[in-house]
């Protein structure tokens, strides 16, 4: 299952969360977000990353069905070198299909 889609529009990368019905943050979705952010960082033409939710919700939070399970082996987060990509929030809109934008590169 693909937990996200990655597209780019000019200098903006868009990661669309795809874990119906509420885009709960399970292991697969967290890894997909990390992959998308790493992909954007590797592309020098990308200046911002926007994360959007598909369906009826942006993100329902943690996937409670995974509570109490052992963490998976392998990468499940954004690497420390990519933390500068999240240095500031450029805008937030609440509600369905909320848009969050991060930019760590100077323009």
Report on this structure.
With 107 residues, this protein is α+β, with helices and mostly antiparallel strands. The protein has one domain (4-102): Alpha-Beta Complex (2-enoyl-CoA Hydratase, Chain A, domain 1), CATH 3.90.226. It has one helix at residues 27-42; strands spanning 4-9, 12-17, 48-53, 89-92, 100-102. The protein is globular.
Care to give the gist of this entry?
With 107 residues, the chain is an alpha+beta fold.
Report the structural category. alpha+beta
Count of structural domains: 1
CATH hierarchy: architecture: Alpha-Beta Complex
CATH class: Alpha Beta
Radius of gyration: 14 Å
Strand order of the largest sheet: 1-2-3-5-4
Largest sheet composition: 5 strands, mixed
Helices and strands, in order, run as EEHEEE
Poorly predicted regions are 87-107
Task: Find the count of extended strands (DSSP E, 2+ residues).
Answer: 5
**Given the C-alpha coordinates, what overall shape results?**
globular
Helix content: 10-25%
**Count of alpha and pi helical runs:** 1
Strand content: 15-25%
Q: How far is the N terminus from the C terminus?
A: 36 Å
What's the pLDDT, averaged over the residues? Answer: 75
- CATH homologous superfamily descriptor: 2-enoyl-CoA Hydratase, Chain A, domain 1
The CATH topology turns out to be 2-enoyl-CoA Hydratase, Chain A, domain 1
Protein topology:
Elements: E1 4-9, E2 12-17, H1 27-42, E3 48-53, E4 89-92, E5 100-102
Parallel strand pairs: 2-3
Antiparallel strand pairs: 1-2, 3-5, 4-5
Please name the defining characteristics of this protein.
2-enoyl-CoA Hydratase, Chain A, domain 1, alpha+beta, disordered C terminus, 107 residues, single chain, 5-stranded mixed beta sheet
């Amino acid at each position: 299952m693909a937990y996200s889609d990655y597209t780019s529009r000019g200098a903006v990368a868009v990661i669309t969360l795809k874990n119906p019905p509420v885009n709960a943050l399970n292991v697969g979705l967290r890894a997909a977000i990390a992959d998308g952010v790493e992909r954007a960082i590797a592309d020098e033409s990308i200046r911002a990353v926007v994360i959007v939710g598909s369906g009826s919700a942006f993100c329902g939070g943690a996937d409670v069905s995974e509570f109490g399970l052992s963490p998976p082996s392998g990468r499940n987060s954004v690497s420390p070198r990519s933390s500068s990509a999240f240095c500031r929030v450029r805008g937030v809109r609440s509600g369905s299909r909320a848009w969050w934008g991060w930019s760590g590169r100077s323009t």
